[in-house]
């Protein structure tokens, strides 16, 4: 089966190239990388932890691409993101990557994209990209329960309600 949702990453080369999950996905031809924020399509679902809305299953109706901001959040100017109407934050999940294992809200780009895919009902595509990392499928195991609940939510309000049960 082919890729159902196009994957894009905006890279500013501020992260460690040896640990960069986007570089690995790019090597396998699984993601399109752009180095100028203006090259990110305005119609994409932009994964942005500062977004006003959280991703939810109904977003799948219009999503044709997902874009990860693969950069250091310390240097990112989020005011540049205002033109994107389709900005979405991810709900509570914990990292499975070796650098931030078990830490909440500190996902690699591949973990963030995979989480978005699962919530949008594209589990197979999430598995395909995570399989490229020896720790990748652990992300799905570690977050199995919340991801399943988020993927079954009716809307973003319900996703937030589910999230509140995890962060209490």
TrEMBL record:
Domain 16S/18S rRNA aminocarboxypropyltransferase Tsr3 C-terminal: 45-167
Broad EC category: transferase
Binding residue positions for S-adenosyl-L-methionine: 21, 69, 90, 109
GO molecular function, one term: S-adenosyl-L-methionine binding
Superkingdom of the organism of origin: Archaea
Family annotation (Pfam families): Fer4_RLI, Ribo_biogen_C
The protein's name: 16S rRNA aminocarboxypropyltransferase
Cellular compartment(s): Cytoplasm
NCBIfam families with a match to the protein in the record: PRK02287.1
């Amino acid at each position: 089966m082919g890729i159902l949702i196009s994957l894009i990453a905006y890279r500013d080369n501020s992260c460690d190239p040896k640990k960069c999950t986007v570089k690995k996905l790019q090597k396998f031809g699984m993601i399109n990388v752009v180095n100028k924020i203006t090259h990110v399509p305005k119609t994409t679902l932009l994964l942005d932890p500062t977004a006003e809305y959280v991703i939810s299953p109904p977003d799948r109706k219009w999503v044709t691409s997902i874009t990860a901001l693969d950069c250091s959040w310390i240097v990112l100017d989020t005011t540049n993101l205002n033109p994107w109407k389709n900005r979405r934050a991810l709900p509570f999940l914990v990292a499975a990557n070796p650098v931030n294992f078990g830490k909440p809200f500190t996902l690699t780009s591949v973990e963030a994209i995979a989480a978005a895919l699962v919530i949008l009902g594209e589990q197979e595509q999430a598995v395909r990209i995570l399989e490229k990392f020896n720790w990748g499928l652990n992300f799905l195991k570690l977050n199995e329960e919340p991801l399943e609940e988020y993927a079954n939510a009716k809307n973003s309000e319900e996703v937030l309600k589910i999230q509140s049960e995890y962060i209490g």
